[in-house]
Task: inverse folding
């Protein structure tokens, strides 16, 4: 029966792909004892160049951004000198998903790394 043969072939290919693709990625990434090294950051942060609106160009899927588009982050300074963060995303129904926060440098040895 041709339909049965196709179904078995598809299942076999999918199983082979799962074994060849998914399992090595689990061994390579999911079960590592340590994270890969951090990418280098700037030695000095010129906060004035960082402030303003930033628009998302591409993204890695994240659960908190599902079904959103037009993602924007706006960075500013408050009266206390803290970096303010305002992230906005447009939901499928046209409403906005927003979050506000502040960012700071947790380790002065790495002034280019901000924690929100």
Result:
């Amino acid at each position: 029966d041709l339909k049965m043969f196709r179904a078995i072939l598809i299942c076999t290919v999918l199983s082979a792909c799962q074994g060849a693709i998914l399992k090595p990625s689990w061994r390579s990434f999911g079960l590592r004892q340590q994270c890969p090294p951090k990418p280098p950051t700037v030695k000095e942060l010129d906060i004035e160049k960082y402030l303003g609106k930033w628009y998302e160009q591409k993204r890695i899927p994240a659960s908190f951004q599902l079904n959103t588009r037009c993602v924007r982050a706006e960075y500013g300074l408050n009266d206390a000198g803290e970096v303010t963060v305002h992230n906005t995303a447009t939901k499928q129904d046209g409403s906005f998903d927003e979050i506000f926060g502040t960012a700071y440098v947790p380790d002065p040895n790495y002034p280019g790394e901000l924690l929100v």
